[in-house]
Amino acid sequence: MKKSIIILLLLAAVLAAAWYLRGKFTPADAPLTLYGNVDIRGVDLGFRVAGRLSEVLKDEGDAVKAGELLARIDPQPYIDELARADALVAAAVADQQLKRAGNRSEEVEQGRAALEESRLVARNAERAHLRHLGLVGRGGTSQQDLESAESARDEANQRVKLNEAKLKLLEVGFRAEEIAAADAAVAQAQAARASAALHLDDTQLKAPSAGIVLTRALEPGAILQAGASVISLSLEQPVWVRAYVHESELGRVPPGSQVLLTTDGRPGKPFHGKVGFVSPRAEFTPKSVETPELRTSLVYRLRIVVADSDGSLRQGMPVTVSLDPTPP
Length: 328
Hints:
Layout: H1 2-22, E1 33-46, E2 51-56, E3 63-64, E4 69-73, H2 76-101, H3 105-135, H4 143-172, H5 176-201, E5 204-206, E6 211-216, E7 223-224, E8 229-246, E9 258-263, E10 266-284, E11 298-306, E12 318-323
Antiparallel strand pairs: 1-8, 1-12, 2-4, 2-7, 3-6, 4-5, 6-8, 8-11, 9-10, 9-12, 10-11
Helix pairs in contact: 2-5, 3-4
C-alpha cells in the first residue's frame, strides 16, 4: 500500500514538472498564444467652478459623443461676473484713450487765459508797489501799506509762475509712465474679462470624447465645489488589451507587431490590434490571466491597441492574443 502511494506521488511530480517545463521549451516555430484582459480608460468628470447643479442631461448607460453636453450648473452668477468685467474693460479703455489723446484744446486755452490774467494782476501789483515806494519817503503812505503792496506783488508773481507750470503740463500732455500704466490697466481688465468668460463656459460639462456613462453621481439642486465628480465616463477610444509574454517568447512580439484578439463571445471573429508597448520590467503574471503554467513565472507586460473595436469589448474581459498571419 505504501509502495503504491509512493509511485503515485512520483508520477504526480513528474507530470507537474512536465507541465511546468512545457512552456519553457516550446519550439520556436510553435503558434504564439498569449492571454490578457481588456483595459478601457475611464474618467471622472466635474466642473472647474463651484455652483448649484441645475441640470443633468445623461443617465447611466447612455452613449455620448465627444463635445456633447452632459450637465450644467446655474450660470447667472458667472453671467453677472462677465458683465462686471465688461464694464471694467470699457472704463480702462476710455482712460487709456484719454491718456493717449492728451488734454483737450479747450483746456489748453483755458490755461493760457489763466496765465494772462495772473500776469495782468502781477503788473498791477508791481505798479502799486512802486507808487507806495515813492510816497513812503514823503509821508504819503505808511510803512505797513508799503509792506502790504510788496506782499501782493510777490504773491502775484508766484501765481504767474504757477500758471506757467500748469500751462506747460497741459501742452505737454500725460507722461509716458501714465500712458504705460493706462495700457497695463487695459491688459489687466481684459485678462479679468477672459477669466470671467472662461468661468461662464465652465458652467457646462461636456464629454471629452465618445464613451458610455458609467455613474451619475449627483442630481440637480446639489451645491458643488469645484472639481466634484458628477459623471463617470468609460471612453470608447483608446481600447487596449493588457497581455503578458514569457521571456523566451519576448522577441516574437516587438512593438508594432500585428495581432489577432479573440474573445469567448465571438471566437470566429477576431479583433485586430498592434503591440504598442512592451514593459522593460519583469513582473509576476496577475491571477486574472488564464495561463496556469505562467502564473508563478516572471513575464513582461504588453499593451496592445485594438484597431477595430466595435463597442462590444468591456473592461476586464478576457482575451486570447495570437500573431496575425496576414501581412500588415
